[in-house]
């Protein structure tokens, strides 16, 4: 279906022309370019007759611009579409397919013709032949030139022609119109908007440079059409642009359309920017994740994050948390799920959840029916002696058996190091068939150590109790609070107050760890505490505990412990047995007497271990020799085999079997028994550290006395040295002394001064000893802090010795508090002190009379070899401390 238009009022100066009428939703505007595929016979005919022949017939053919599904409409502003532009690029022309389907129908019925159109000239024509039908088709590229009005439409053959009249102004008319100020204003406005559009487009694509030139060279009325034609607008808007014959109307309409297009570009740009931003972020994450996955795969650790989360959730589910805590945990898990692993707080949140999942909310060791006899056997088997202690433990267990949820007191073992406090606690756990966890409280000064840090702190973690429970993974272990006397309080809070809550059966059901932030039930835990001394334990805490004292061992006890327990254990730990190493009793005794001087057996165990190590080296070396000899055999025999296999002549080698056999048996014989003798002892442990003569050597001059003190390491022998020099009568005290011991020294000096005459100290020849003299008292070892009142009698003795210039008996040690009036008051730690004296080889011990009852604790074997002198007054002490009695008595005798 085609048209031919006849009789244009003012023919366009072109060799071949067509008139394009709007059709469906497409309009050709002047200045725009259109590409038409002519496939129908009518349009082919039109092209052939009106264009192909290139005759100037003064006619214009008319084609309706049709909409078909395949029509692609270019919306790009194309440079070079103007008349005056030298270069004609067909960028983004509108494609219109003239489909054959419609050709069979009556065009009048089908098409409602618009009465205005645009005259167009052909820029390009190409002819094609369809195979196999041989049908001829054309593709015509046309450029819109000017608007026309259809005056009359008539058919010529299969296509139409039209009589038209030109609508656009002529040049002269235009020049006239352009002087109109309104039009000038409008065109300026249009150009400004167009300029803006161009610069926006320029930012997007660098090729728009030429459009600017267009703006300056092309007349504004054409520009309006060109601009509008280059973007997608509705058919109605296109039609109204075509109908805008009036320049002012056309310009204002175009300005509006260009402006709208500009806005839409801007909005679109904003959206793409946003999308791009998001995209690039997620792309980056994606990339990193891919990399991480690759790295994990490479490391063979390709479990996914999601799998991790699922595993964590499963673990949490099986942890058996109470419902409210489970809710809390789920909330936390949801929060974690929303986080990226790189996000701050992710790992801390994760660690927290892991802790929640790992805590034994429900899980406990299975409790068997407690058999007291086996428990007793167990305790006896692990520990020698300690009869009273074991009895108390059995009582404790018996109560638990009768009433499993009994809220008995917490047992607290008090005693010097190495006496078996920890191992007793672990035996309790074994007897009860429970797990054992040790929490060391030594040096804990921060409450947060017990109760945990709040999660807001960087590097926060749960307290030691919760951590301990996590480690054992049961909620009913035996928990040893080790060295409970070593906690101290400072600005960071008081750990003892947190411990109070832990040990209180009423409160520990809902123990609140700051890190955990949810209550945990500690009521099933059996707490056992240990301490070296009772005094430093805060009274409130002590009130919750039952103190069981474990004084040090006697040398005999130590010997038994060594033989029955320590040696077998040490040998076992070193991969030896009594077949390889034997430590005779006499040697153990020497170790106890000369190499260790302690209340417990820890050092003894260490020394035995040193012997075992040395023996292990010997045995291992011999093993090596045996191995070597065997190797010799192997090499030779394989050599022989090889020769035999090779079929070569065999030359027999004589192996000196006797020598080899000798070596092997030697190695085995020496490996079988290594008996430790004194020589080996000295080689391994060095020369003896202690001997019995120490006291005698140290008390060689007047002014020195031997005291007995009680430290956290058990009983100790404490020498007191006093000396005098020229001065103003001051008292100097050294040796890291506490206030109480300093006061004891004052009391002692006052007493001696007050009794100087009675004691006839001045009569001893040194008249001015007490006048114009400074007294200096020193307690070696200078680096060990000392305190307590029990040095009173020792101080007096050393002062009297100094002033009387008489030596104190080296075989006598003493302890006792003294009043200003000279009364001797009882002191603590008698058993430890007597044992210490025994260790030093001291034969006589002066004790306050009121400590007589404490002697019952001292093993009779020790007492049998010692002289215990009970005193009431300081004069009695002096009487016993000096050879030949007290100087005062001498005087009174005189
Ligand atoms: P503490 O906790 O009192 O400092 P330990 O319990 O650690 O001391 O004991 C130190 C070592 O001495 C352990 O190997 C322990 O088995 C051993 N031991 C202590 N007393 C005895 C004893 N009466 N019988 C057997 N071994 C003991």
UniProtKB/TrEMBL annotation:
Highest rank taxon of the organism: Eukaryota
Alphabetical UniProt keywords: ATP-binding, Hydrolase, Nucleotide-binding, Peroxisome, Protease, Serine protease
GO molecular function, one term: ATP-dependent peptidase activity
One family name in Pfam for this protein: Lon_C
SMART domains to which the protein is assigned, alphabetical: AAA (SM00382), LON (SM00464)
One Gene Ontology cellular component: peroxisomal matrix
Compartment annotation: Peroxisome matrix
Entry's family note: Belongs to the peptidase S16 family.
Functional description taken from the UniProt entry: ATP-dependent serine protease that mediates the selective degradation of misfolded and unassembled polypeptides in the peroxisomal matrix. Necessary for type 2 peroxisome targeting signal (PTS2)-containing protein processing and facilitates peroxisome matrix protein import.
Record's protein name: Lon protease homolog 2, peroxisomal
Organism: Elaeis guineensis var. tenera
């Amino acid at each position: 279906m085609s048209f031919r238009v006849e009789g244009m009022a003012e023919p366009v100066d072109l060799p071949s022309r067509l008139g394009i009428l709007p059709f469906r939703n497409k309009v050709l505007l002047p200045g725009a370019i259109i590409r038409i595929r002519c496939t129908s016979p009518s349009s082919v005919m039109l092209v052939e007759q009106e264009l192909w022949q290139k005759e100037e017939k003064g006619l214009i053919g008319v084609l309706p611009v049709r909409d078909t599904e395949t029509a692609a409409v270019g919306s790009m502003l194309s440079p070079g579409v103007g008349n005056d532009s030298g270069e004609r690029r067909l960028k983004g022309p509108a494609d219109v397919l003239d489909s054959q389907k419609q050709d069979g129908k009556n065009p009048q019925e089908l098409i409602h013709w618009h009465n205005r159109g645009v005259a167009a000239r052909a820029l390009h024509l190409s002819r094609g032949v369809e195979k196999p039908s041989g049908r001829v088709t054309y593709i015509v590229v046309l450029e819109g030139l000017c608007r026309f009005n259809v005056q009359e439409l008539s058919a010529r053959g299969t296509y139409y022609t039209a009589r038209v009249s030109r609508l656009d102004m002529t040049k002269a008319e235009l020049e006239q119109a352009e002087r109109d100020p309104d039009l000038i204003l409008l065109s300026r406005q249009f150009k400004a908007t167009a300029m803006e559009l161009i610069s926006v487009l320029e930012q997007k694509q660098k090729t728009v440079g030429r459009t600017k030139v267009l703006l300056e060279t092309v007349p504004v009325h054409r520009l309006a059409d060109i601009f509008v034609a280059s973007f997608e607008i509705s058919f109605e808007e296109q039609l109204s642009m075509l109908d805008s014959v009036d320049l002012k109307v056309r310009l204002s309409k175009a300005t509006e359309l260009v402006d709208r297009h500009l806005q839409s570009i801007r909005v679109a740009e904003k959206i793409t920017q946003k999308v791009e931003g998001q995209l690039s972020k997620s792309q980056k994450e994606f990339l990193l994740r891919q990399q991480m996955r690759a790295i994990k795969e490479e490391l063979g650790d390709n479990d996914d994050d999601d799998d991790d989360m699922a595993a964590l959730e499963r673990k949490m589910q099986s942890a058996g948390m109470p419902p409210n805590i489970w809710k809390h945990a789920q909330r936390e898990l949801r929060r974690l799920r929303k986080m990226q692993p790189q996000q701050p707080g992710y790992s801390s949140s994760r660690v927290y959840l892991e802790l929640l999942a790992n805590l034994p909310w429900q899980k406990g060791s299975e409790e068997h029916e407690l058999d007291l006899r086996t428990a007793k056997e167990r305790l006896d088997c692990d520990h020698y002696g300690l009869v009273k202690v074991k009895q108390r433990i059995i009582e404790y267990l018996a109560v638990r058996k009768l009433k499993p949820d009994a809220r008995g007191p917490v047992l607290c073992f008090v005693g010097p190091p190495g006496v078996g406090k920890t191992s007793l606690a672990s035996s309790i756990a074994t007897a009860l068939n429970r797990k054992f966890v040790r929490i060391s409280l030594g040096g804990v000064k921060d409450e947060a150590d017990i109760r945990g840090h709040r999660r807001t702190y960087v590097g926060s973690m749960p307290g030691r109790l919760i951590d301990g429970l996590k480690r054992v993974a049961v909620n009913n272990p035996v928990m040893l609070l080790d060295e409970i006397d070593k906690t101290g309080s400072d600005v960071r809070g008081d750990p003892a107050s947190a411990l109070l809550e832990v040990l209180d059966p009423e409160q520990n059901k809902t123990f609140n760890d700051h890190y955990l932030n949810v209550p945990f039930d500690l009521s099933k835990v059996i707490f056992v505490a240990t301490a070296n001394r009772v005094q430093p334990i805060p009274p409130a805490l002590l009130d919750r505990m039952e103190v069981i004292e474990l004084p040090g061992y006697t040398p005999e006890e130590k010997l038994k412990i060594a033989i029955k327990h320590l040696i077998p254990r040490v040998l076992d730990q070193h991969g030896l047995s009594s077949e390889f190493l034997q430590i005779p009793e006499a040697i153990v005794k020497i170790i106890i007497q000369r190499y260790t001087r302690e209340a417990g057996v820890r050092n003894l165990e260490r020394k035995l271990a040193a012997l075992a190590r040395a023996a292990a080296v010997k045995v291992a070396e011999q093993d090596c020799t045996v191995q070597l000899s065997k190797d010799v055999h192997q090499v030779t025999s394989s050599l022989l085999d090889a020769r035999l296999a090779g079929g070569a002549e065999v030359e027999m080698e004589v192996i000196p079997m006797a020598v080899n056999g000798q070596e092997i048996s030697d190695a085995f014989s020496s490996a079988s028994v290594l008996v430790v003798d004194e020589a080996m002892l000295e080689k391994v442990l060095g020369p003896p550290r202690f001997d019995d003569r120490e006291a005698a050597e140290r008390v060689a001059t007047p002014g020195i006395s031997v005291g007995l003190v009680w430290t956290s390491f058990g009983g100790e022998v404490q020498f007191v040295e006093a000396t005098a020099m020229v001065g103003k009568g001051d008292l100097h005290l050294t040796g890291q002394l506490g206030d109480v011991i300093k006061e004891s020294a004052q009391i002692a000096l006052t007493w001696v001064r007050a009794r100087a005459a009675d004691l006839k100290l001045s009569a001893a020849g040194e008249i001015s000893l007490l006048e114009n003299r400074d007294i200096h008292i020193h307690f070696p070892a200078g680096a060990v802090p000392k305190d307590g009142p029990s040095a009173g009698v020792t101080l007096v003795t050393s002062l009297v010795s100094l002033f009387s210039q008489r030596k104190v008996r080296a075989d006598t040690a003493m302890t006792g508090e003294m009043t200003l009036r000279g009364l001797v008051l009882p002191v603590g730690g008698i058993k430890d002190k007597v044992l210490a004296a025994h260790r030093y080889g001291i034969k006589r011990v002066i004790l306050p009379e009121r400590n007589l009852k404490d002697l019952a604790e001292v093993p009779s074997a020790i007492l049998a070899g010692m002289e215990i002198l009970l005193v009431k007054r300081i004069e009695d002490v002096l009487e016993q401390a000096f050879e030949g009695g007290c100087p005062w008595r001498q005087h009174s005798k005189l």
